Amino acid sequence: MVSLSEAESSNVRIASALPPGLVAVFVGATSGIGHYTLKQFVQHARQPRIYFVGRSHDAGERIAAECQQSDPDGQYTFLQADTSLIRNIDNLCREIANQEKTINLLFLSTGTLLSHTETTEGLHFATSVVYYSRTRFIVNLLPLLRSAPHLRRVVTVFGAGKEGPITTSDWQAWKVPMLSQRGHVSSMTTLSLEALAKEAPEVSFIHNFPGVVKTNLARGGEGLAVFVLKQAFKVLNPLLAMSNRECGERQTFLATSARYPSKTAEACGVPLIAGLAAACGTNGQSGSGVYSVDMDGTSAGAKVEALLAKFRDGGLVEMVWKHTMEEFERITGVRSISDGSAVACP
C-alpha cells in the first residue's frame, strides 16, 4: 500500500528529479479523474507540454486557462474529439505526432455507462470508449513513447484487480451480462497491455482501479440501471469518494514513480522514496513492466495473478491481440498510423 503522504512526497520531487518540458497526453481530461490528474501533474512538473483530449470545447478552454495560471511556462493544447471513433483517434495521433518526437506519458481515463449502442464504425460504444479507443491511442503513440528520455509510461484507468472471465465469442460484450462486463473488459485491458509490453519492454504499462471518485461518468446514460446508478452515486459519493485532489495526487504518482518500472528498467521516472520498492507485476514478478493496481497503488493479489496466468497458458494474450488488430484493420485498413504492420501480434 502507498499512503497519500508517500505519493505526495514522491510527487513534489518531480520538478527536481525530472527535467522541464515533459510531454504528456491526457485522454478524457475535461472532467473527472483525467482532469484531477492533469491539474496535479501540471502543479508538480516544470514547463510541461500537455495535449489533453475531451468532448467539451468550453471545458477545454477553461482547463487550459487553469493550467496556464498554474505554470505559465508550460504549453497546453486542447484537442476536441469523439474518442469512441477509431478514425478520430488516428487524426488526433497524427496531429500530436506532427508536433512531438517523443511522449513521456499517455494517460487514459475515458469512460461511459451508455451501453448497447453501436458506433458508426460498428463497435459497441461502451467497449470502444474504455478498450478499443484507448488501445488505439497506445498503438499509435507507442513509437514516441519508446524513444522518450527519463519517463516512458502508459496509465489506463478502469478496473484493475477486477479482472474476470472473458467471453471469446463476444469480444465487444454485446451480450455479456452487465455485472460481468467489467471483468470481461478489465481482463482484455490487462492482457492487451501485456501484448504491448512484449513489443515495447522499455515502456511501463499500468492498469489501475481508481476507487470511488466523483466523476461525470453517468452523464448521457439512459435506462433504469443508469438511473439507479446515478442515484447511488449521489448518496455514496459524499460518504465514500476520495477528494479530487487526492485522486489527482495518487494518479500522478502512478504516472511518474519508479515504483512501476518498465521491464528493462529504463526511463522509470522519479526515484523511489524511502520505504517503497518496485511493485509486483501482473506475472507475479517485481518490476516486470505491466501492473494491475488498486486505488492505493497495491498490485492485484494472488487470485488475479492466477487468473491471468491461466489466460496466458490458454493463449488469451494472443487471441485478444489478434482480435483487436483485426478490428483496427477492418475500420482503418492498417494496424497503426505508422504503417500497416507497426505492432505485430505477439
Main beta-sheet strand count, sense and barrel state: 7 strands, parallel
Order of helices and strands: HHEHEHEHEHEHEHHEHH
List how many beta strands DSSP finds: 7
Q: Measured on Cα atoms, how large is the radius of gyration?
A: 19 Å
Number of helices: 11
Mean pLDDT: 92
Q: Widest sheet: strand order?
A: 3-2-1-4-5-6-7
Helix content: 40-55%
Distance between the termini: 32 Å
Oligomer description: single chain
How would you describe what is shown here?
This protein is α/β, with parallel strands linked by helices and 346 residues long. The chain is 45% helix and 10% strand. It is built from eleven helices and seven strands. It has helices spanning 4-11, 14-17, 32-44, 57-70, 86-99, 125-146, 178-199, 224-240, 244-256, 302-313, 316-332, and strands at 23-27, 49-54, 75-80, 105-108, 153-157, 204-208, 290-293. The chain has a seven-stranded parallel sheet, with helices on both faces. Helix 1 (4-11) packs across helix 9 (244-256) and helix 3 (32-44) crosses helix 9.
Can you give me a brief rundown of this structure?
This protein is of the alpha/beta class.
Keywords for this entry:
45% helix, alpha/beta, 346 residues, 11 helices, single chain
